[in-house]
Amino acid sequence: MGTSVVTSIHAAQDQPAVQLVDLTKSYGDYTAVHQLNLNIHRGEIFGLLGPNGAGKTTTILMMLGLTEPSSGQARICGFDPARNALKVKRRVGYLPDDIGFYEDRTALDNLIYTARLNGISIDEAKSRAEILLEKTGIVEHMHKKVGAFSRGMRQRLGLADVLIKNPEVIILDEPTLGIDPEGVRELLQLISSLSRDQGLTVLLSSHHLHQVQQICDRVGLFVQGKLIACGDIQSLSNQLNDEGSINIEVGTAVWTEALQASIAQIEGVLDIYRNPDDKGNEEYDLATIVCDRDLTSQIAETIIRSHANLVYLRRKDYGLDDIYHRYFERKGAR
Ligand SMILES: Nc1ncnc2c1ncn2[C@@H]1O[C@H](COP(=O)(O)OP(=O)(O)OP(=O)(O)O)[C@@H](O)[C@H]1O
Q: Gene3D superfamilies under this entry (predicted)?
């Protein structure tokens, strides 16, 4: 093997698995994805997060060569999907949010079918299918017809289906949709361990920040076709802290609109929101007040004056709820 070949193979290994440069997609006057720049490194688990209609699926379709960018470029495993869709397809496994299987055929048959479509010999297909059914935890159901599978089992089978061609990158569109909390936890753990064991690059699209952050190395926050922030949870939190605002969390026996309005009138209060993932605390209601300075005593006074029964008050660092709220609902609305 000549030096130049060796160099170029090493260069390819060093290249990010996914490179998006000024990637843009317009439908008529509407821009669904606007000049997206993003690198995803090999072996990384990346979460593409955003509310409905943010442009996540459109981005994925451009990455797969299933829709053409209006401008800009994507390179997936070194290939441009707009020109080399087949080469990209060979290296990338895609699990859409509504994967179709042959419902009247067994899980094993479905996997063997996919493997055969990808040019894998029948013996190899069988052995890979059995290994993957084992890994995804549904081996005992391999002879069951897929039509009888639960949503969680289908998603596990979907993972096995994308993995059967030994992809370098897997793209999972809302993989946890419609699965119960325990099933979500198990599925995410499975994705995480598959990625770690095999050095797989994973792109996961979701609108559940809480779920995704459990396994993602980095997340990108996508709003109205634009990537408004990108990084690990800690650095996103630090960016918000650097903006100089202070978060005060309060717990009250009752939270009323009148109380919220009184707090909003305090000079220096920037934003107030109820904690979105307050897990049904029955003792008190939790809210976060974003201020441009430390307004702890003014807030306490206002709550006490309104007889709302202040149960607790503390200054807090930015957590996931705050990141979600500040980036998606405040910045996204600008
Ligand atoms: N073929 C199309 N023609 C016109 N507009 C489209 C088309 N496909 C998508 N859009 C629009 O582009 C925007 C982004 O859609 P996309 O499906 O990429 O969002 P998403 O982030 O995946 O949302 P969701 O979480 O709801 O799946 C939406 O406003 C959608 O209506």
A: P-loop containing nucleotide triphosphate hydrolases
pTM here is: 0.77
Q: Please tell me the distance from the alpha carbon of residue 24 to that of residue 13, in angstroms, as a whole number.
A: 26
User: Cα(197)–Cα(251) distance, rounded to whole angstroms?
Assistant: 43
Q: Mind listing the domains of the chain with CATH numbers?
A: 3-231 (3.40.50.300), 238-331 (3.30.70.260)
pLDDT per residue, tens digit, the chain (334 aa), is: 444 444 444 445 678 999 999 999 999 999 999 999 999 999 999 999 888 888 999 999 999 999 999 999 999 999 999 999 999 999 999 999 888 899 999 999 999 999 999 999 999 999 999 999 998 889 999 999 999 998 889 989 999 999 999 999 999 998 888 788 888 888 888 889 888 888 899 999 987 777 777 789 999 988 888 888 888 887 877 776 666 778 899 999 888 899 999 999 999 998 898 875 554 556 778 898 988 888 999 999 999 998 888 988 988 766 666 676 766 665 444 3
d(CA 50, CA 6): 40
Q: Which atom of ligand 1 is nearest to the CA of 207?
A: 25
Q: How far, in Å, is the centroid of ligand 1 from the Cα of 93?
A: 21
Q: Are 65 and 85 in contact (CB under 8 A)?
A: yes
Q: Whose CA is nearest to atom 10 of ligand 1?
A: 32
Identify the CA nearest to 96 among candidates 162, 12, 178: 162
Of 27, 60, 174, which is best to mutate to test ligand 1, by the most ligand atoms within 8 angstroms of its C-beta?
27
Q: Residue 50: CB within 6 Å of ligand 1?
A: yes
Would you state the structure tokens that stand for residue 176, as one six-digit string? 């946890």
Residue pair 134/159 in contact by the 8 Å Cβ criterion? no
